[in-house]
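Hey, resending since the last one bounced:
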Amino acid sequence: MSLSAVNAGVVAMAVSYAGPLALVLAAADAAGLSPAQSSSWVWAISIGAGLTCVGLSWWSRTPVITAFSTPGAAILVTALAQHDYAEAVGAFLVAGVAATVLTATGVFARVLARIPDGIVSAMLAGILFSFGTAIFTSLRSAPLLAGAMVIGYLLAKRLWPTYAVMCALAVGLAVAAADGGLGLDIEGPGLAVPHLTAPHFSVGALIGIGVPLLVATLAGQYAPGMAVLRADGYRPDERVICGTTGVVSTLLAPFGSHAINPAAITAAICTGPEAHRDPARRWIAGVSCGVGYLVVGCFGSTLVALFTGLPHALVATLAGVALLGALSGSLARTVADERHREASVITFLATASGVTVAGIGSPFWGLLAGVLAHVLLKIGGRQPAGPLGEDGDLEPAGGAEHGGQVVDQPADGAVGDTEAPRDRLVGQTLRK
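The structure tokens again:
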């Protein structure tokens, strides 16, 4: 066991409920769902996320963090009220089957693999950008709470970097409790009861709910979720991970689950060095997050109050400091490759803008804008020259490649010069 990894999983689970759950409850309220249906919805998405988190993390020894679709829940806030709930369940079911087919067959992964890494990293950076700026907006609204958490995080980062996020959480809870800001209203433990709804299928619900839900989940969750894992050096079988979440979404759709998918924001909390210095030990964070989901799913009304009762500034600041490492890494990869830098920056700006068109969030439009810019710049264009080569030749000066290995040779032909200057290693780094 690793205390820092367990804490990372708990923080990821808390962030998942403190914000996106409000969208689910708002959608349920707008659609006029009964308390039993609303409780079953929370139960289904919690159990689905918990089972996939624990199972996939344990199986792959990778911090696979799953969650319920946040952009999907945002779409349902308005779309669900326009259709009968049974028809919405039918749309959930069809969207789950479609997501399973597209991901398990590798079609979605093949499309994603053709997109330059810088563009995908830029999309992730754009998603995380608002969480970074939320630290400073929280300083404006709750200066004592947010300021104490930031100072606690920085001091812990200097002294005990592995437990920096944990220290920020502890400081935040202490300050909020002393200031009377913990609005917890717990009436007593109660087990959640799943409520089965027979699906009805209608063309209107499939077009109005199913298609937007599928597109928003694939573009807004699957793509960034896989980008988070790749960014921290993990190479899991995407077909297994995404296909499994699609199957679980389908099975739990009659109980209200709109979509279970790889997480993006909360995943970044568990995949970086803040969870554990050793990447091979970070899978514990995935199991911890999944166990938290399962507990909340079983005791939904009781434990959801723990997370929804936390001050908004505490949750925002905690998520911001927990994602600083992921944001800085994504920004670095966004501008690392000069050949795709402009398209990557366009992706970042479009994603960070938060624009929503036709109910589809900015990650999809940012990715689309970046790919379009990449295609337009590439057609009939000329790749920028490498630092030392010509016409995009990335061969490092003085280096020759033999059998897949780059062999250093004297950079300028001088006898005994066996180490290339730092600027001459740029091409070698890009090749790797």
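The longest helix spans residues 203-231.

Sorry for the duplicate.
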